[in-house]
Amino acid sequence: MIKKCLFPAAGYGTRFLPATKAMPKEVLPIVNKPLIQYGVEEAMNAGMKNIGIITGRGKRAIEDHFDISYELEHQISGTSKEGYLQSIRKIIEECTFSYTRQVQMKGLGHAILSGETLIGNEPFGVVFADDLCVGNGDGSVLAQMVRVYQKYRCSIVAIEEVPTDETHKYGVIAGSELEDGIFVISDMVEKPAPEDAPSNLAIIGRYILTPDIFEILRNTQPGKNDEVQITDALLTQATNNMVLAYKFKRRRFDCGSVDGFVAATNHFYDEYKNG
Fold first, then answer.
1. Given 29, 64, 70, 250, which residue has the most CB atoms within 10 angstroms?
2. Domains in the chain: how many in total?
3. Higher pLDDT among residues 139 and 167, named by residue
């Protein structure tokens, strides 16, 4: 029912310099797989096989990764190394990829608005590759959110509890619990100081959005850091319609930070080593 998923991937990845000087942070490997591939696999397993990626200058490696490399495949054809490409071949065969550029870095809301031509007038998922969530198939975070959408048919953000002194890193929600783990949002604040945070329920990089969000984003004025914030647009949407927050049941690694990236690498290396 939700067929499309948008990946904002235009950021510079400055926390990983100098590695990201010439390499997109989205293709940095977690063991033997680029970070963004984990997110695409999650979208694909949630039924979203039309993948839209918002890129920027210096991001061509993302497009090359989700494409056939004839020279490489010819070189390893018939060898034991051919099996290493099995997972990416499956993605290329089953998914369709579209790309557009965010020409100016004007915030996450602006990045999502830049993807309107890739989405059209239908509900869609949004995945931040930085937030790497463990678990695929029906148990993945995005698949859980699809089931919530099928019941309520409105925009949904994924949330998790964070330490109070870390609220300044996230958008934070306030709301009333509709059912176990599902909240009707009454307020959203972008990166509040701990004393200003309405709760410790932080938004992480998984969204399901209804298409009216694009018109709202067009009319959303720049907010914190002079950027168009998706939290501001969603708060506007919540005043016109219900917006839900879903407390997901999976483990998340913040791969936008070095500590989270290393923790994710150790986790997936243990899985890789144990077969």
1. 250
2. 1
3. 167
Task: Assign residue 215 the CATH number of its domain.
Answer: 3.90.550.10
| Structural tokens at position 147 | 């089931």
Neighbours of 45 (CB within 10 A): 17
Distance CA(19)–CA(217), nearest Å, equals: 33
- What are the pLDDT digits (tens) for 38-69? 999 999 999 999 999 999 888 899 999 999 88
- For 60-87, letters b (16+ CB in 10 Å) and e give eebeebbeeeeeeeeeeeeeeeeeeeee
- The owner of tokens 């975070």 is 141
Task: State how far the Cα of 32 lies from the Cα of 37, in Å rounded to an integer.
Answer: 10
| Domain region containing 230 | 4-273
In angstroms, the CA 167 to CA 17 distance is 25
Query: Considering only CA atoms, which of 198, 190, 192 is closest in space to residue 233?
Result: 190
